[in-house]
Amino acid sequence: MTTEITIELDINGRSETLTLDPRVTLLDALREHLGLTGTKKGCDQGQCGACTVHVDGARVLSCLTLAAQAAGRPVTTIEGLSAPGGELHPVQAAFLEHDAFQCGYCTPGQIMSAVACIREGHAGSDEEIREYMAGNLCRCGAYPHIVAAVRQAAEMAS
Amino acid sequence: MKAPDFDYVRVRSLDEALAALAAHGEGARILAGGQSLVPALNLRLLAPEILVDIGGIADLSGIALADGTIRIGAMTRHADLERSPEIARHVPLLARAVREIGHPAIRNRGTIGGSLAHADPASELPACVLALEARIVARGPSGERTIAASDFFRGLYETALGPDEILVRIEIPAAAAGERFAFHELARRHGDYAMAGIAALARDTGAATLRIAYFGIGSRPMLAAGAAAALRDHGASEAGAAAAVRALGADLEPQSDLQASAALRMHLAGVLLRRALKDLFPDAAGGREEEIA
Ligand SMILES: Cc1cc2nc3c(=O)[nH]c(=O)nc-3n(C[C@H](O)[C@H](O)[C@H](O)COP(=O)(O)OP(=O)(O)OC[C@H]3O[C@@H](n4cnc5c(N)ncnc54)[C@H](O)[C@@H]3O)c2cc1C
Ligand code: FES
Ligand code: FES
């Protein structure tokens, strides 16, 4: 039998103490234990990017990160990108403006990945954006609009 | 939750990690970046009793140059290699290869130690450390030992590491003046594991020190010693290249899988070799591009 562990997670600036089975991934901790369902589960295998969040400011796949591995490190999810009721993050606004989605399932992951992509300095051209956003799949094929949104947000940030 | 039951311990030091391995024997597994281990657990390919998370051991990561050798801690992330000016300058082959590993989010967590210990035959870094004549340093109950990269990879996901050992760092001779490398891989989609790939290194301007390593071909990364010998004997001329491609037949043991047949892989190995020779010896005729089809 597995021994449960108690961990402290720092999610969007809030400290959360959880007692969990050690098998729980960061993705399941967010969705099932903290009610933060903005982060999506597409494949649970690292193949689609729908579960992308930031840990220590870097984009990671929450489905391939155990909750325990994120203990004590700042985690940002789509819910934490802008203050509730406040202004949208520029990347969120650019996604809206460019209609960079259809069903929206991949969108939180795309946006978290795009924010990191711009911060890493990998959004200099459409080609570079496509390369560095390639881990985020969109079943609806909204890619051209996603690239346009990321491009605009990157230009605004520079 | 899909993974089988396991316990979890986050250790703070190597000694603590070694003690956990000693206490649990084969039932323990090191958790580094988790980018191969977590999917394997979720698919229930493995059922360890306990995961020993080494992510909190600070002195396992980092890149340092001393006495002409680059030392890379096992927990150094792929993204750290990608961004490191030391790696770009002193081990440019690694800087080039690491960009082909998965996608940025995977590179932010995956580690060089994990990649080598996991020994996926389609992985880029194992072939690179073969070409680079790297030394792999492991720590076990009786202290450290150094394993030549050419003795490290034993078979499919199999290495020279014992169950009570931890890979602690990789040591690579820094690039000499005039050193050149070539790196190519063929994958159906960019970012996927390679169907076939090559990492080659010449420590000087001639073919005398050439080392050619392949990944994605057989059950483990392999050095093509016969092909390198043919190029030493004949030079990087068209005759040398043709002899080298012929020698691959004895050097490699290509395997068939859903992605490619053994015969296709053998053909691709020749194509990759010619591409590599074109990069390494641009003035010689041996790099003639061959049609893939
Ligand atoms: C979608 C996807 C695509 C990928 N594409 C590629 C690709 O194209 N090329 C590629 O090379 N890789 C690819 N990877 C794998 C990635 O590179 C992994 O990071 C790497 O293979 C394992 O490193 P890790 O640190 O994540 O190790 P983990 O997953 O934590 O561990 C892997 C194995 O190594 C053992 N181990 C780890 N560290 C040590 C150590 N220091 N000492 C002893 N044993 C240790 C573990 O016990 C485990 O058995 C991909 C992964 C995903 C999810
Ligand atoms: S759910 Fe994590 S990558 Fe698909
Ligand atoms: S908008 Fe539907 S998957 Fe991307």
From TrEMBL, chain A:
Top-level taxon of the source organism: Bacteria
Read off the PROSITE patterns from this record.
2FE2S_FER_1, 2FE2S_FER_2
Keyword line: 2Fe-2S, Iron, Iron-sulfur, Metal-binding, Oxidoreductase
GO MF term set: 2 iron, 2 sulfur cluster binding; metal ion binding; oxidoreductase activity, acting on the aldehyde or oxo group of donors
Q: What is this protein identified as?
A: (2Fe-2S)-binding protein
The protein's matches in Gene3D superfamilies, at most eight in alphabetical order, are given as: 3.10.20.30, [2Fe-2S]-binding domain
Identify the residues that the record assigns to the 2Fe-2S ferredoxin-type domain, covering every copy: 5-81
Pfam families documented for this protein: Fer2 (PF00111), Fer2_2 (PF01799)
Q: Does the keyword Iron apply?
A: yes
Automatic annotation (TrEMBL), chain B:
Under the heading Pfam families, the entry gives: CO_deh_flav_C, FAD_binding_5
InterPro entries, per the entry: CO_DH_flav_C, CO_DH_flav_C_dom_sf, Diverse_Substr_Oxidored, FAD-bd_PCMH, FAD-bd_PCMH-like_sf, FAD-bd_PCMH_sub1, FAD-bd_PCMH_sub2, Mopterin_DH_FAD-bd
What GO molecular function annotations does the UniProt record carry, in alphabetical order?
FAD binding; oxidoreductase activity
> What highest taxon heads this organism's lineage?
Bacteria
Residues in FAD-binding PCMH-type domain copies = 1-177
Q: Which UniProt keywords apply?
A: FAD, Flavoprotein, Oxidoreductase
| UniProt-recorded name of the protein | Xanthine dehydrogenase family protein subunit M
Please spell out the taxonomic lineage of the organism that makes this protein: Bacteria, Pseudomonadati, Pseudomonadota, Alphaproteobacteria, Hyphomicrobiales
